[in-house]
Design goal:
The chain is of the alpha/beta class. It is built from seven helices and 15 strands. It folds into two domains: 207 residues, Ribonuclease Z/Hydroxyacylglutathione hydrolase-like (Metallo-beta-lactamase, Chain A), CATH 3.60.15.10; 68 residues, Arc Repressor Mutant, subunit A (Orthogonal Bundle), CATH 1.10.10. The structure holds zinc ion.
Length: 285
């Protein structure tokens, strides 16, 4: 029986990274998120799987590991998304029944039953670090070897070109989580997409991510001096950030731009009103 997945890369102590479109972590039978390919885990004893958040690309083979005996843990707020990935699609469409056009592969996933919540989770191999903002229950994991798996809480600088408007339900929380990542004593930071970086290198990536958030916020504050509808604000941010024009990008932008609008509204920086049955936003005077 192999002790670790065959393609795992050693980072520190007993902590390994299993590279993929989504990077997984492996420490002594504990798996952190999953890559899309089940082959590396064939014959490897996995008794626990922890999932950073309820997006299907982070638990693609969760059901396979669970069928082979792993217990699955996720935060309470994201558990329903793992057990029923269709909820993500419903949420994106304001809970109304979406047409088939919305159920693209991007939002589809294989459901995986959840056995325990991260709120009750104790394990000497890794500690749960709450990093909300990308989703409500998003968590990172710090292994006993000083390796911090950050899920989608941190985007590496090189990733911004392909993802100029990373999905976020609450950019204010994303910023707070980024500051938390900076403060954590660790040796390595492993984002779910990209490659491992040292803690020192991570600071630069955190600063870049924070600067991008501030830039998007400032764009809205500047442009909303002339009132805009929600749809206009989504189109404006999408254009300025250089998003590709397709339904998947649009629906992800809908949530993220609303996240920014809600955050600015909460802080009293912008106002919301309804006019001619449309929702409008403008910078507060
Ligand atoms: Zn995600």
């Amino acid at each position: 029986m192999p002790a670790t997945p065959y393609n795992a890369q050693h980072l520190a102590g007993d902590t390994w990274v299993v590279p993929g479109l989504t990077n997984a972590g492996f420490i002594d039978g504990l798996v952190i998120d999953t890559c899309e390919d089940e082959a590396p885990f064939a014959g490897v004893a996995v008794e626990r799987l922890v999932i950073t958040h309820g997006h299907a690309d982070h638990f693609a083979i969760g059901h396979v590991l669970r069928d082979a005996g792993a217990r699955v843990a996720v935060a309470r707020d994201d558990a329903a998304l793992v057990e029923n990935p269709d909820i993500n699609i419903r949420g994106m469409f304001s809970w109304a029944k979406p047409g088939d056009f919305l159920t693209t592969k991007l939002f589809r996933g294989t459901p995986c039953p959840v056995d325990e919540y991260l709120e009750d989770f104790t394990d000497e191999r890794a500690e749960v670090i709450g990093l909300p903002g990308h989703t409500l229950g998003h968590c990172g994991f710090l292994t006993r070897d000083g390796v911090l798996f950050t899920g989608d809480a941190l985007y590496l600088t090189s990733l911004w070109e392909r993802h100029p408007l990373p999905y976020a339900i609450d950019p204010g929380q994303v910023a707070a989580s980024l500051r938390r990542i900076s403060e954590i004593e660790c040796e390595w930071v492993v984002p779910a997409h990209g490659y491992p970086v040292t803690r020192e290198e991570a600071h630069g990536h955190v600063e870049h991510h924070l600067a991008q958030l501030a830039e998007i916020e400032q764009l809205l504050l500047d442009e909303l001096r002339e009132a805009m509808t929600t749809e206009q604000a989504i189109a404006l941010v999408s254009q300025r950030r250089g998003l590709r024009e397709n339904p998947a990008s649009y629906w992800l932008a809908v949530t993220t731009v609303k996240g920014f609008l809600g955050d600015l509204l909460n802080r009293g920086a912008i106002e919301f009103y309804v006019h001619e049955h449309a929702g409008w936003w403008r910078t507060a005077k």
